[in-house]
Every structure is written in structure tokens, then in C-alpha cells.
Amino acid sequence: MEYRVFGRTGLRVSQVGLGCGDVGGLIVRGEPALRTRAVALALSLGINYFDTAPLYGQGVSETNLGLALKENKADVFVGTKMGLTPEDKKDIKNGVIRSLERSLKRLDMESVDLIQLHNRLTSEPEVPNLTGPTWTRKRSWSRWWLALKSYGPRGKSGTTASLVWGKRKRCKQL
Length: 174
Description:
Helices cover about 35% and strands about 20% of the residues. It is α/β, with parallel strands linked by helices. The protein has a 4-stranded parallel β-sheet with strand order 3-4-5-6, covered by helices on one side. A two-stranded antiparallel ribbon has the order 1-2. α4 (about 90-105) links the parallel β5 (about 75-80) and β6 (about 115). α2 packs across α3 (about 60-70) and α3 crosses α4 (about 90-105). The model is unreliable at about 125-145 and about 160-174 (pLDDT under 50).
């Protein structure tokens, strides 16, 4: 397996990760023994990154991945996403924290290595421009990002975001 340094974290992550979503469905719908064997095989091949989300099987992926990792006594990198409910979007800062706490409970872990945004932070359909009031509200997340750092076991944090700007998408590190 080949590994790459993840951003500026210094963490060496396998180039291939195990996706635990609904598409293949193994982690969501597979039998427990099969899930455990699949994770063991991934580990034996050098895979050390596992990707899950609250929306994969309505949380089942996180629960089942946590069980399979525990069964394999695996020390790996786990990434999940923020799954914000309409109620969470009324108070985005606490909604993000609640989403992460729900994920950690399902995974039966104290922390994860990567937190990604899985849905919009607001119910607004688009960001009309990067200087208007909508963009200003969306950028307000930076005020509470530090609160999420406490969930990272290695003291590193960062994010990337995809911004809609007219008809073109641009990604930049925030």
C-alpha cells in the first residue's frame, strides 16, 4: 500500500480507503461476521483510512464500522461527516457539535480524524456572491471551528469547502 501525508497534519494515510456507504452496502447491510472480515482484509492490505457518515444507512454505517474496528482492535484513521437536521440548522454551531457527538456515540469512539460537511449549513439554495450578507453568515462557522478541535486526537484541524460562485465551483482551504 502506498501512503500520503494528509494535508499539513503529518498523518500518513493510505491512498486507498474503505468507503462504508450505502452504494456497496457491506458495512450498512452485511452480516456482522462479513463486516468484520472485510475490515480485517482492508487492514491486512494496509488500508488505514475508513470513511463513513451519519447519512449512510441513517447512522447504521457508523455503528457497524465502530463494531468492526473494535472487533479487529484497529488503530486507524476514521473520517465522518456532519449530518445536520433542519433543527440543527437553526443553531449551526451547536448543531455541528450535536452531529459529531451523535457520530462519536454510534462509532463508540472518543474522537475522529476527519470531519467533513455532508450537507449545506443553511437552507438557502446558493451563495449568491462571496461578499454579500449570505457569505458573511456562512463564514460565521469559523467562530466555533475551534470547539471542534477538541474532538481531534492529534491536535490538528482544518477544512476544505466547496463554494458556489455563479455557475462555477471553486474549492479553497479555509
